[in-house]
Amino acid sequence: MKILMHLIIILFILSGCSNKYNIDNAKTSSISAEELSDNESSLQAETPTENNLPEMSIEEVIKLSKITNLNLKDLYYFKGAVIDRTPSSSEINIMYYPFTQSNINFRLRIISGKNDGKLIHTFLTRMDNNMEVDIRNGNIEHVVSGTVSMADYLRCELPEDLSEGPFIPYMDASAGGNYLFLNGETAAVGGIEYYHNLNPYFEDGYLAKVDSISNHSSYGEFLPGNESNQVFIRADDSEIPCLYTSYTFYEDNREEKKWYAFWTEEEADRVYAFYLDSNEYGLDEFLSIVKTFHFNDNAFVYVE
Predict the structure, then answer these.
(1) Residue 263's closest CA among 199, 207, 180, 204?
(2) What percentage of the chain reaches a pLDDT higher than 90?
(3) Cβ contacts of residue 145 below 8 Å, gap of 6+?
């Protein structure tokens, strides 16, 4: 029966089922034998016995993270896989491996395309503080120790009056980042963050635009010297494709105005962003900081 369950999990990944991207409140269930397809016999021939299936662990995660071109087949054969059965998206499948090590609960969450089987994300999460990385980026030890930071992915030169706050998983609408504070004040005047949901658009090999960060907002309204009314302007001297713009957020008769820069590459899994309050910093000063951004070799995972 246990072998049968692993066959079913594999078949589920390959054939697809509506799933929800965030599984914190996901419903899970087993699958009946009647749901097996005609491919059962061929799958069974490839499946190791239950006794040979390893438990998921940090050591196994590290091994997986070192596989070049990691794919779904590399992730199938472990004990304890759980399928997210919450109907939400017709485009993705999700399964995950919950495990405990040194009295700390972890989860390896695997997100793949329903129709093409493309591996989209492989998130390792430390459940007590939500520290998280895609294991293909490495930095597994930083999840274990709870020391994930933006320095894992990039470096930049900030003015002396700006200080970085601690890394925050799921900061605002982003997947994570840290706030920037002016002269030790408690109200943030900027931030460095990354997003998985901004849907960057490339045109003729150049980054052309990204989606809005939030509702009730707009890009490009107060860019100085912008006679052509461009929403985004390309930073040509950046090592990674980069756009900058002005950003206005409206809420309850209140406006927030910021400078924003975005970096990503084609087929990359994320968009990095840097912003500053436009009431505290002019565009020239903002762009002088943008020029200092450099990205580590593991800054991006490519979803081809």
Answers:
(1) 207
(2) 52
(3) none
